[in-house]
Amino acid sequence: PPPQYSWLLFPLHFTSLVWPLLAPQAAPLPCLDLYGGAAWPTVAFLSPCSCHGRAEECIGLCRALMSALNWLLRCAAFYAEKVKEMLEQVAAEGQMKMCLERLEKMLGSTKNRALIHIAQLEETSSWNTVEQSLLKLEESLNGLSNSTLRSQADDCISLIKSIPTMLSVRSEQLNKTGFPTVHAVVLLEGTMNLTGEIQPLVEQLMMVKRMQRIPSPLFMLEIWKACFVGLIESPEGTEELKWTAFTFLKIPQVLVELKNYPHGDKDFTEDVNCAFEFLLKLTPLLDKADQRCNCNCMSLLLQECSKQGLLSEANMTNLTDKRKADREDAPQLQSAENANIQPNPRLILRAEPTVTNILKTMDADHSKSPEGLLGVLGHMLSGKSLDLLLAAAAATGKLKSFAWKFIKLNEFTKHISTENSKSAPVRALLFDISFLMLCHVAQTYGSEVILSESRPADEVPFFETWMLTCMPEEGKILNPDHPCFRPDSTKVESLVALLNNSSEMKLVQINWHEVCLSISAAILEILNAWENSVLTFESIQKITDNIKGKVCSMAVCAVAWLVAHVRMLGLDEREKSLQMIRQLATPLYGDNTLQFYNERVVIMSSILEHMCADVLQQTATQIKFPSTGMDTIPYWNLLPPKKPIKEVLTSVFTKVLEKGWVDSRSIHIFDTLLHMGGVYWFCNNLVKVWSGAGRWTPLPAPGCWVRLGSGGRAGCGGCPG
């Protein structure tokens, strides 16, 4: 209680201890007047209650509120019975009125009801006691003649009964502490545009900050909250690595740019420190992130911000110590089975300087030491090293340069004038690894990362030409009769003979670029021969083993054409083409394969799975690709099969409005609907859903839908949330 009520502390504590000893289960309330008189001032100060301690202390506050609610209900029920006794009616009415006023005061706050709801979820048995007390109060109201007291009690009962369903009811707008537009801008950028430049994002965030007049600490807090939410909900695999790179590499760079904007007399580093102080209060969010990443995320983030000059050494140490103390009292955040697993945030932070070193290595003269370069590339293929490096490169704006180095390496392998049997396998592997890496980059981060500036047709690199004309992508329909699939007939015939007659693919003096362009026509010849019974299934197996046994990129090019071909066939004509895809997707296990074959097969399988996803769904075909231990296409096939797309848009957007914030899955659904329905359909129906939602409240981020319409890459300003 406040100081003026300090004299009540002794009787309140004394009575609290004595009461359970007197009659812990008794229905009448002995010493009620003493207990009530001592407690009224305490209850009167419930409305502004809050807790800024550890998670356990905050849960304790929730439990205490629920206990107070139960006690007030029992008091009200007790005096409701007393009112019916004529001798004590007036005094009892006064006491009951006081009970109901305290109940109204407590339950009138949405925050208090939310805290009680948390306690209800934590302790079901205690909530059952509250429900019993509520039932007893309702029974005591029967025959109560005072209509005012009855009306007050009914209002309180209604509010209590609404507590279990609070999550399904639209909440109050958090106008002062929640900024869903900032959240949505960050979520959209992290989900759809990791490779985007920093400056447009900074300008959009600053526009939102100015329009909504958001204080700098709360502004940065919202950015960090969005990052942790995105990281926690991201699917395991590539998407998780993207969000890790976005949170620990890109956002600190964004804050560095924000620091350059004028901030008046305020010290930006103090605002950053204040934002982290606020973030420390969100213990459940930080605990969830630590569990997901298997490390102390806050500590790593603070170190990175300090390295960028965003935090002083003293503030970093202070914040780190506070988070360390919180973790000691939290549940076990690092399980025994994960103790030896390197956390992704640490790996991403280590990968960032490695990207710079690899770029320098790739600038060297490849002809001087191709074997050494091959060793570097082989190391990149092991485990999840490639995805870590690509995510780090994407988050730091180096991915385009990274891709261009591999295009140049791929072009280098055209030089075969002085090749012998020793150097041929190295050249074949350099071509294969660079080709597979570029395919993987295009599928993971978009083909625009690969595309170079406009140049004459005779100077366009081989991979860029092949990707634009031959590589299947979502929403891109290829013509299997396109000239790109019909190269020089003599080269096709020699390739067919090589595949059909040789026990294994030869490597010396082979131009792999020409082989990849000729393989589609060769596959057509082989497929026709198989369908006309000129070739047996055993012959087809030998041919597909030759295709995938040495250079995996041959299998990728063959499947690329087969995917386009299957789309044009009738249901009864697809069987052999699909069988051939299945054969090419099955790794060749044996000793007669080139170096790094298992690592190359993992990337090849991921590429083929992306290529075949649409056509396999359309043909209701299942092909088992070698497992990489993760979901390679996490946000694919999100739309319900038999639900109109307008209903999907309405239901998803309505849920976003109800929650007050947008998540990554919803963004991917919106993106799919946008490409399926078109810009006009998408925007028109979005406005209809918004205007028909029953309230003209602000969208979580209306400006972000414009950016979504351009793939999250436009630099338009976000409207205030």
TrEMBL record:
Presence of the UniProt keyword Protein transport in the record: no
Record localization: Nucleus
Keywords in alphabetical order: Activator, Nucleus, Signal, Transcription, Transcription regulation
Domain of life: Eukaryota
One GO CC term on file: mediator complex
Main location: nucleus
Name of one Pfam family that matches: Med24_N
BP GO annotations: positive regulation of transcription initiation by RNA polymerase II
N-terminal signal peptide: 1-20
An MF annotation (GO) of this entry: transcription coregulator activity
Family (UniProt): Belongs to the Mediator complex subunit 24 family.
Protein's UniProt name: Mediator of RNA polymerase II transcription subunit 24
Species this protein is from: Meleagris gallopavo
Gene (UniProt): MED24
